[in-house]
Amino acid sequence: MTATESPMTSCCGQTRCDCNPSTAPTPLAVDDRDLAALCKALAHPARIAILRRLLAADTCVFGTLADLVPLAPSTVAQHLAQLRAAGLVRQWDDGAHSCYCVETERLSALRSMIEKL
Fold first, then answer.
1. How far apart are CA 91 and CA 64, in angstroms?
2. Is the pTM for the entire model greater than 0.90?
3. For 42, phi and psi rounded to 5 degrees?
4. Tens digit of pLDDT per residue, the chain (117 long)?
5. DSSP secondary structure string for all residues of 55-66
């Protein structure tokens, strides 16, 4: 910003810009809220590591994911809950074991939303 510019100066140099009156604030779109929720779910390195380990397995993982990442099982469970809530990971029980898979369609939707930014 130059010495003559005000922090309130708009794109055309006026204090109030009327260049494009159609740019009035609009409510957040559903995709914006969804993208924010997905980004929040990925906002911790442990959750990214868990997602990467599941993707690298290229199949559903049975048993505890605590064996795949250097975290306490309770910590892994908390991170998995965040990933499941965002729809990025699916879990189901197979008798005595739990199975975890990446929801690849949801991950593709995330990629698509990011590309549209």
1. 11
2. no
3. -95, 10
4. 455 544 544 455 555 555 555 555 556 566 888 999 999 999 999 999 999 999 988 777 776 677 778 888 889 889 999 999 999 999 888 777 788 899 999 999 999 988 888
5. HHHTSPEES-GG
